[in-house]
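Pipeline run #58 for the internal structure catalog. This entry was flagged by the ingest filter as a single-chain record with no existing model, so it goes straight to prediction. Upstream metadata was stripped on purpose; only the residue string is passed forward. Reviewer on rotation: M.T. Logging verbosity set to normal.
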Amino acid sequence: MKSGFLLLPGMLCCVFGIGSAHANPFTVYFSAHVTAVDDSIGLLGEKAGAPISVGQVVSGQYRYDTSTPNMNPMAPDAFYNPPPGAAAIRISMGSLAFQTDPQGIVGIGLHTGPVGDMFLDSFQNLAAPGFNVQDIRVHFQDPTGHAPASVALPTDVPDLTSFTTATVTVTGNGLNPAGMGDSFSVTFDIDSVYVFPPSAATWSVSPATGVFSPQQNMDAVVLLPAGSQVQSVQSFIGDVPGPFNFGGPLPPGPPHVQCSLLPQNSKGQPVIDCPGVMSALPIGVNQIDWHVQLMDGTTLDKVVVWEVVP
């Protein structure tokens, strides 16, 4: 069952100049698993290194600015259009990630009944070598109309017990190595949601998201879970291998920064140091996915956004 939210894409052209006086970013982290995949020519399998299969576990997040005004305050449906870059969606499966453009627009809709709905929808997404991502949609639905409780933007994680549908759907298209073109789609069921990522207390990337000058002399430091043993640390920018690397294959061509393992800190955390990162960053917004592989098979993913302003 679908609600009137399908009208939203036609509204996006009218909202580029709309912002909010006070930014209140809110992020929901989630774990999910693949419930359906249509990839007849293997576009995603080539990128992921192995076919994506039903049951595969993934991690993700979505965020938005809770101070964004409702574009449809007099109607039973609410429509929110955060300004470019103020909302985002990301799903990570190792080196393969589906994510919105850092400066794209994500539309948000809520409906309270008779069928309750909440969705985030993005048509401006980062492409990857070999395919384009057309649409990323996060969708919660309650056929009884009891959830969501109101059409105000939530400031807490959704109660998954209140929704019969809690999914992320990704669609796209591209060409395989033989030049064949086709579309693909992947559906994920959201299993759990968190205000803070499960690994937030055990590892971090420093500096965090922020704005920097190209003249800064800056190292990046990855603090890993206490007592862990690291196999490799790799970076990706828009699904392309990034310049920061430890223990993995170097990205093709310069620039690249060879990171090194330092002695554990006083909390027993292994420390990965990446010196002089500013020399490898272009001017502008750099959305960097840090992908860590531990010796016990654990994989960790974290995203930071470093904007370099001359």
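catalog note: Confidence is low (pLDDT under 50) at residues 1-22.
catalog note: Residues 43-48 form the longest helix (6 residues).
status: ready for reviewer M.T.
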